[in-house]
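Example for tutorial group B:
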C-alpha cells in the first residue's frame, strides 16, 4: 500500500521547483493493508473461471515472468551515500515488448509492482496494443531529494535495469511521482550506455525529445471517453451530472477539467492531504491556482474542506478515483452514491467492493479500461519514435478515441453476454487474448 505525496500538479515542471515538503501529519491511509498482488490474482481467477481457463495456462499467467530487484547507491548533495531499493518486473511478453510506468514512492513494495505489471498486461490486451505488461518502482520519497539527487537516483536506477529495458524489449513511462523530465534522464542514460540516441526506450518524454502531443492529457482524456460511452449505454446526459474526483494529479485534474468542459458540475476534488467540495460546483481554474499557491486543494475558499473518504461518498453521478489503490472497499462501497465509477487510478476497488457496487447497480468502468488512454498514447509515442514522424494532437486524440470506443463496446458486450460486471468482462477479454498468444507461440524448448 502506498500514500503518495503530491507531485502531480508539477508534472512536467522543472524538478527544481519540487519543494521538500514533509509528509503531512496524519496522511490519509488506504483502507486495506492487503498485498496488491493478492487482489490481482483473485481478479485473475474470477475471470479465468468464467472462460474455463485450464490449469496449465493459469500457472503460466498467474506469475510474473521476469523480476529484478536492485539495491543501488546514490551520492547525495552533502557527499554522503544512500542505498535505495528498486524493482523492474515484466509480467508477460507474449504479445510483444513489455510496457509500464515507473513509480517513485516511499512505500513501494514488490507485491504492488507485480500487481501493476500484471494489470499492464491485461490493459494492453483489452485495448489491443502489441505489448505485454511491466512496471517499475523505487522505494523513495522524491520530495525529500534535490533535483541533482533525483537525477542521480534516476540515472543509477536506469543503469541497473538497462539490461531489461529497450525499445523492442521493455518500455518504461511515467507513473506516480515520475514525470517527463525523469523520462528524459532515463532516455539519456540508456542512450549513453548503448552509444546512440534511443527515443523509443521510454514514453512520456518531453515534447522536445520526441514526446507525443496529447500524452500528458491522455489518461484523463481516455477516462472521459470511457465515461461518455458508459453514459450512452446508461442513457445518462452528462451535461446534467455532478462529478467527484479523488486525486487531483495528472490523471484526475485532466479528467475533472474535461468533465467540466462537457457541462458536468465538478462538486468535489481531493489530493493526498484532503478534499474540497461545493454542491453548486467548484471553479476548477481557481482550485488549480489555490493548489499552485498552497500545495493542496484543502483550504480552498470556494468549497468546504472534506476528508478523502468523504470525497468518494458525496452525492454525484460520476465518481473518478484517480489517486491510489485500495480506496473503495466493502465498507464504503455501500455508501457510494455515484451512478458511474470510472477508475482512472490502478486498483482503487477491492474484489469485495466490486460485487457490492454491481449489486447496487453502480456501473464501474474498470482501471484496465478506464485509464488505458495513457498507455494507448504511449504506444502512439513509441510508433512515432520508431517512424521518426510526429503526429498532430488531433491525430492522436482521434485515434485514441477510436481505440477506447472499440474497447468499451467489446467489454460492454462481453459483460452483457456473461452477465458479469465490467471488470470481469474486461479481464475475460484480456486474459483470453494473452492465453491465445501463449498457446499459439507454444513453449520453448
Ligand atoms: P500523480 O502523482 O500525478 O497524482 C496523484 C494524485 O493523487 C496527487 O494529486 C496526490 O495528491 C493524490 N493522492 C495521493 N494519495 C491520495 C489519497 N489517499 N487520497 C486522495 N488523493 C491522493 O499521479 P497520476 O499519474 O495522476 O496517477 C494517479 C493514478 O492513475 C495512479 O493509480 C496511476 O497508477 C494511475 N495511472 C496513471 C497514468 C498516467 O499516465 N499518469 C496512466 C494510467 C494509470
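The residue assignment follows.
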Amino acid at each position: 500500500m502506498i500514500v503518495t505525496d503530491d507531485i502531480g500538479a508539477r508534472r512536467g515542471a522543472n524538478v527544481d521547483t519540487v519543494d521538500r515538503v514533509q509528509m503531512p501529519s496524519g496522511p490519509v491511509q488506504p483502507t486495506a493493508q492487503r498485498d496488491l498482488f493478492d487482489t490481482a490474482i483473485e481478479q485473475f481467477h474470477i475471470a479465468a473461471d468464467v472462460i474455463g481457463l485450464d490449469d496449465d495456462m493459469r500457472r503460466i499467467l498467474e506469475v510474473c515472468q521476469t523480476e529484478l530487484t536492485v539495491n543501488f547507491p546514490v551520492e547525495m548533495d552533502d557527499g554522503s551515500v544512500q542505498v535505495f531499493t528498486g524493482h523492474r518486473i515484466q509480467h508477460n511478453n507474449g504479445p510483444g515488448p513489455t510496457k509500464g510506468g515507473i513509480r517513485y514512492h516511499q512505500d513501494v513494495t514488490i507485491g504492488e509492482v507485480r500487481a501493476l505489471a500484471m494489470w499492464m498486461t491485461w490493459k494492453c490486451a483489452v485495448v489491443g496494443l502489441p505489448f505485454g505488461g511491466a512496471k517499475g518502482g523505487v522505494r523513495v520519497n522524491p520530495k525529500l531529494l534535490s533535483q541533482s539527487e533525483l537525477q542521480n537516483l534516476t540515472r543509477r536506477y536506469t543503469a541497473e535495469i538497462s539490461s531489461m529495458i529497450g525499445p523492442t524489449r521493455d518500455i518504461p513511462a511515467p507513473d506516480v511521482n515520475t514525470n517527463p523530465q525523469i523520462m528524459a534522464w532515463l532516455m539519456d542514460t540508456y542512450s549513453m550506455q548503448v552509444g546512440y540516441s534511443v527515443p523509443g526506450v521510454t514514453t512520456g518524454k518531453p515534447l522536445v525529445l520526441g514526446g507525443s502531443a496529447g500524452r500528458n492529457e491522455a489518461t484523463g482524456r481516455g477516462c472521459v471517453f470511457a465515461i461518455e460511452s458508459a453514459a450512452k449505454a446508461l442513457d445518462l446526459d452528462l451535461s446534467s451530472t455532478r462529478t467527484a474526483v479523488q486525486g487531483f494529479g495528472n490523471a484526475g485534474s485532466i479528467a475533472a477539467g474535461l468533465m467540466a468542459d462537457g457541462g458536468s458540475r465538478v462538486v468535489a476534488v481531493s489530493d493526498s492531504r484532503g478534499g474540497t467540495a461545493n454542491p453548486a460546483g467548484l471553479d476548477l481554474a481557481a482550485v488549480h491556482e489555490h493548489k499552485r499557491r498552497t500545495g493542496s486543494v484543502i483550504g480552498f475558499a470556494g468549497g468546504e474542506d472534506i476528508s478523502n473518504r468523504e470525497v468518494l461518498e458525496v452525492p454525484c453521478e460520476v465518481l473518478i478515483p484517480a489517486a491510489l489503490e485500495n480506496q473503495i472497499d466493502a465498507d464504503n462501497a455501500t455508501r457510494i452514491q455515484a451512478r458511474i465509477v470510472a477508475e482512472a487510478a490502478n486498483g482503487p476497488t477491492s474484489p469485495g467492493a466490486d460485487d457490492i457496487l454491481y449489486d447496487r447497480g453502480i456501473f464501474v468502468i474498470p482501471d484496465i479500461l478506464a485509464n488505458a488512454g495513457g498507455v494507448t498514447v504511449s504506444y502512439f509515442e513509441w510508433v512515432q519514435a520508431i517512424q521518426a514522424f510526429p503526429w498532430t494532437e488531433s491525430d492522436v486524440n482521434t485515434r485514441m478515441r477510436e481505440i477506447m470506443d472499440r474497447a468499451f463496446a467489446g467489454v460492454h458486450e462481453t459483460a452483457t453476454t456473461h452477465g458479469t460486471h465490467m471488470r470481469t468482462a474486461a479481464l475475460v477479454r484480456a486474459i483470453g487474448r494473452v492465453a491465445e498468444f501463449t498457446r499459439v507461440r507454444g513453449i520453448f524448448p
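The longest helix spans residues 393-418. Compare this with the pattern of hydrophobic and polar residues in the output above.
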